[in-house]
Amino acid sequence: MKILCVGDVVGSAGRAHLRKTLPDVKRKYGVDVCIVNGENAADGNGLTPSAAEFIFDSGTDVITGGNHTFRRRELYEMLETNPALLRPANYPSSAPGRGLYMVDRGRYQVAVINLAGVVYMEPLACPFDTLDALLKEAGSPRFCIVDFHAEATAEKKALAYYADGRISALVGTHTHVQTADEQILPEGTGFLTDIGMTGPVQSVLGVKPEQSIAKMHGKLPVRFSTADGPCRMDAVLLTLDDATGKAAALERLQIL
To answer: How far apart are CA 191 and CA 250, in angstroms?
Structure first.
């Protein structure tokens, strides 16, 4: 089985590049399930219903979220009504939406879990305990992909080792920088610290460089906007063993 996980989509520029490149990538690699992190896909930040629909219509099966998911209140109803639109599961139960979705293909099902880190981020519920609860809820699925939206690289890898052999792969999002540490852990779980970003190449994490410089150098509030110019889609292609659900291969992709 082939699973494609796409890094954080940034603004309308990132959405347009996703639509332009995703269909060809899916055909080329024979992708069975496509998972896209869309928490920054609206211009400015966050995610709107129209931006989410655009991502789904571009060929996405599941949209995962992160710490910016709840910035746009107009998304809250869609989080409740569309089960394939996820937010991190370790937010309080009072938050709209859910963090687990089962992609049902008839002959097989793929569990997709969305979690957020707590190191240098919001003090949410423990991602380790939340993962245990979700795996129990899903009935210990053969195929399971975790999008761990976290800041600290050590927290991402610790959770991957904690889940090793119980999930197919854990891939990180949030930092917008693709890491070069893909590996298969001893018990068969695939791991990549961060998938990267889908958005403008000449940018600071998708933002116009001069705006990021003004914020970091001047220390005053700055309204960010998506940078101009050519874009790139960062992704990771996971090949899973059909019999065991464990990772057989990981390939990082950067599609201009």
So the answer is: 8
